[in-house]
Write a structure and sequence with these properties.
Blueprint: H1 17-25, H2 36-39, E1 44-49, E2 55-62, H3 65-84, E3 94-102, E4 110-116, E5 122-129, H4 132-144, E6 151-154, E7 157-161, E8 166-167, H5 168-175, H6 181-201, E9 211-217, E10 222-228, H7 252-261, H8 264-284, H9 286-297, H10 304-318, H11 321-325, H12 329-355
Antiparallel strand pairs: 1-2, 2-3, 3-4, 4-5, 5-7, 6-7, 8-9, 9-10
Helix pairs in contact: 6-7, 6-8, 8-12, 9-12
Length: about 350
Amino acid sequence: MQDLKISLKKPSFPISEQLDAYLTRYNRNIEIPIFYDDLLRFQGSIVVYDKDDNDTLWIRVYYNDFEREEIDLSLKKVYTILHSDGNEDTIPFLNVDSIDFCTFGNSKPFRVKVRNILNDNYTYFYVKTADASRIYGLELEHMLSPYNLNFLVYKNTLIEEHIAGIPGDEFIEKMLPNCSKSEKSQIAKEFVKFNERCMIRLLGDMRSYNYVIVPTHDFDHVVYKIRAIDFDQQCYEGKFNIYRPQFFKENYKMVELVSKTFQKLSIDQYKIEERSILVKRLKSYHVRVDKLLDCMVNDSISTEENIEQLKMTIFEYTQDIKFKRARNMGEILKAALEFMVRNYDDVSLNRLKLKG
């Protein structure tokens, strides 16, 4: 287990014209009535504590009466754009219960709680600064993970839907010890697959508080899935192990669970399963993925030092000359996905030959 160092302050990368055109084509780029900077004009705040009186690192912000009325209406409109294609018939039945600001991390998001006053159902969405690398991460998650993501971009503002689940650090500390043997085995399997998925698509910094555990009740048991919730470190860092959740000390108990539960043969099998699923997703989304990768190849979302370090590390692993020739993070990710598809196709061809 390593104490990996993450860049203390990752810069926010602007959205290029090509990426902007891509977002417009796929209905991500939609005009909204409020910007991230508008929410920064709060007049006061209080600390938000959890049920155990621990500081959550979020503060609840307040605005003067005139601005609050305008901000509330704008946030309700954003909610309707995100969830009902802008149909404003429900606005009279919506209430903005709270606006929280996170003082921790790079993105410094606002979390907005919107409640339906007719039935008291509520949900959250997040308002962040639009950062190109984060947007690439969201799009890749939408296409290459088992989960669809709903988000909007307008100029310098990013709107993200809330991803429901139990924070990984809370689950590991409070719930994992009480899981049954079969549940622990299933969670270990999911962590192996999650680790493989993050590594292949170069999603970094998956410490336990940057993903959630999602329990779903089946007819005779509970199914657990792992979902990333932070996409800030998509294709930025130079250290390869930052893209492998298994190397973070915060995930030690998950790694320990895997090592106690499975032999290497089983771990390798689950890795193969995840790669197989990723290849199928790539092929089903191939046009859209190609267009996104083309944007990345022509974009700058990291430093020269990080690019050089990462491509040479992966080249040493794979001996694939495409990594050594890569000029930016887009080309590194493209080479990684092509390498995976090529290996998968070779294995499939060999199986066909054996059957023949």
